[in-house]
Write a structure and sequence with these properties.
Length: 334
């Protein structure tokens, strides 16, 4: 009876949930992750990073490629170059419009499907600037090296956005940074470089391995509003370790279907990718609505009874905070 009384207090939100209930368990040393062709790559979380590559990335911001898409050039990019004002002023970039920045994850590049899917959703929804960031040189390295290099890539993106602001006066209040997996931590570091001034950051299933206690991970101070969408995180009821961080990291954190296993998915990579698929659908339809939870136990048990809030979308003035649960269908638009 006493145990049930204490548990009921946790569920109702009157007592804080112990951290062990929702903090991820330690990752195994070796993880399998499929690359862009679906071939499994083994990750050794204790491997030595490639310090030569990291030094190159840190000292050469030109390793980031910035590709602009607008309604005037929806599929053929214009390359924007750091410290080259002409590349910006001669482009279709319009500082009067919102700017969406998309950053891919590990083993991805500018041609990865999530970039075009999210780009098209935004351009079809509203007139805006879409900038796809290609950081393939580092993203194509081993996971440990890529993780170590994330802060430098993010800082480079932050400096580029500061340059964009100085050339065009495009306000940070009109900027929305969207990052998937390791890209979520990149946009977090870009926001940090800009002092948290950008209007919004959306982290699409931010990477978990090596990032749970990492001081450079995406967090709520990186932008005016930071939203996490978690689809492949580990949990007490998940027998495998997901690729996502699985814990609240932003101003508002959404856990579709509990945040670790998605309808219609049989693999972890499917669960992981569902984050950007759900985000794309939310931009188009704005139909995915989460209900606020007092704590993570309520979320996992699917007994949240708080206020309702739309997940994702392209709103630059969102201000809701907390943990949110929603259930979705298994196919688009979910």
């Amino acid at each position: 009876m006493k145990l049930w009384f204490i548990l009921s207090l946790f569920i109702s939100g009157y007592v804080a949930l112990p951290s062990f209930v929702y903090n991820e368990v330690p990752y195994q040393r070796y993880l399998n992750f499929p690359d862009a062709e679906g071939i499994l790559q083994t990750i050794d979380l204790e491997a030595q990073p490639d310090f030569e590559l990291l030094n190159e990335i840190e000292n050469d911001s030109a390793n980031n490629l910035y590709l602009l898409f607008t309604r005037a050039n929806p599929t053929t990019p214009q390359t924007l170059v750091m410290d080259d004002a002409d590349s910006i002023t001669a482009s279709n970039f319009n500082p009067e419009l919102p700017t969406v920045v998309i950053v891919h994850g590990w083993l991805n590049n500018q041609n990865t499907g999530l970039n075009s899917v999210i780009r098209d959703a935004h351009l079809q929804k509203a007139d805006c600037n879409v900038i796809v960031v290609d950081w393939e040189k580092l993203a194509g390295s081993d996971y440990v090296t890529a993780s170590f290099g994330v802060p430098a890539v993010g800082q480079g993106l932050g400096r580029f956005l500061a340059f964009l602001n100085s050339v065009t006066e495009a306000p940070y209040s009109s900027m929305h940074l969207v990052g998937f997996s390791l890209g979520a931590h990149i946009v977090g570091n870009a926001g940090k470089e800009l002092g948290g001034q950008v209007a919004r950051i959306t982290g699409l299933d931010p990477s978990g391995p090596l990032w749970t206690a990492n001081q450079n991970r995406l967090n709520a101070s990186n932008a005016v509003y930071v939203e996490g969408i978690h689809t492949d995180g580990p949990s007490g009821v998940n027998p495998t370790y997901g690729f996502g961080i699985g814990i609240p990291i932003g101003t508002a954190d959404f856990f579709p279907n509990g945040g670790y296993s998605q309808p219609g998915c049989l693999t972890s990579i499917c669960d992981h990718n569902r984050s950007w698929e759900l985000y794309r659908a939310s931009v188009t339809y704005n139909h995915l609505i989460g209900r606020k939870c007092f704590n993570m136990l309520q979320m996992l048990m699917n007994i949240c009874r708080g206020t309702t809030v739309h997940m994702g979308n392209d709103n630059l003035t969102k201000s809701e905070s907390g943990i949110f649960r929603l259930d979705t269908g298994w196919r688009y638009p979910y």
